[in-house]
């Protein structure tokens, strides 16, 4: 087993940004598990599958092959051989990913891939259930969160920079809905692991969050 850092938390808490920086600083591999669910959700969307129909989603799973690849140290997400790293970042795809992640067959399909990567490499893996379900033996566990308003505002600023004209109130509503879905799903719901360090980034800079997490890593390495 490699040295595993598990970072869990709700949508928009900054998990990916923080995890990438910690992984780079430490020379670890960064694994964005949410991207795997997004890639699967994107494939379902492209195939016209009704993602509210659990049976239809389950039936389509064998038709989708999701993989992670690394180019110059950057994670790339592949769905049936196609690089979909950019396409999966759409808000619509994120909402679908949150929805289908509650289906046990979906989670089973991706679980082995995640565990295999972590067993062979030093990784920083982020998601919703990494410390509680995917990597319960991880040496360092972090629960990264922030207020709903702060998370929504961060997303709002990102979209504005891209030239879009989002509604902050709608983004807040979407985040609250995703939080509810993630925290109330029957299988591996989002929650803080008992042995995880709680980090609230609402009033912290990215550099401060990275330093805090690296401090926890130093304590056990």
Automatic annotation (TrEMBL):
Positions bound to ATP: 9-17
Key word Cytoplasm present: yes
Pfam families, A to Z: Cytidylate_kin
Cross-referenced InterPro entries: Cytidylate_kin, Cytidylate_kinase_dom, P-loop_NTPase
MF term (GO), any: kinase activity
NCBIfam families per record: cmk
Protein name according to UniProt: Cytidylate kinase
UniProt gene name: cmk
């Amino acid at each position: 087993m490699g040295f595993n850092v598990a970072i869990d938390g709700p949508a928009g808490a900054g998990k990916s940004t923080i995890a990438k920086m910690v992984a780079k600083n430490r020379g670890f591999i960064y694994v964005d598990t949410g991207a795997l669910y997004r890639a699967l959700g994107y494939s379902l969307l492209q195939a016209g599958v009704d993602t509210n129909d659990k049976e239809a989603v389950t039936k389509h799973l064998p038709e989708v092959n999701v993989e992670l690849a690394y180019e110059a140290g950057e994670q790339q997400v592949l769905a049936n051989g196609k690089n979909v790293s950019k396409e999966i970042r759409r808000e619509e795809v994120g909402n679908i990913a949150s929805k289908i992640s509650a289906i046990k067959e979906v989670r089973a399909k991706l679980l082995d891939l995640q565990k295999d990567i972590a067993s062979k490499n030093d990784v920083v893996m982020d998601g919703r259930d990494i410390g509680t379900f995917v990597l319960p033996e991880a040496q360092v566990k972090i629960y990264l969160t922030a207020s709903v308003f702060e998370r929504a505002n961060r997303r709002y600023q990102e979209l504005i920079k891209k030239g879009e004209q989002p509604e902050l109130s709608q983004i807040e509503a979407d985040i609250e809905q995703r939080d509810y879905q993630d925290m109330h799903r029957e299988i591996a719901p989002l929650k803080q692991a008992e042995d995880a360090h709680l980090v609230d980034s609402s009033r912290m800079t990215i550099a401060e969050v990275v330093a805090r997490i690296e401090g926890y890593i130093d304590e056990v390495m």
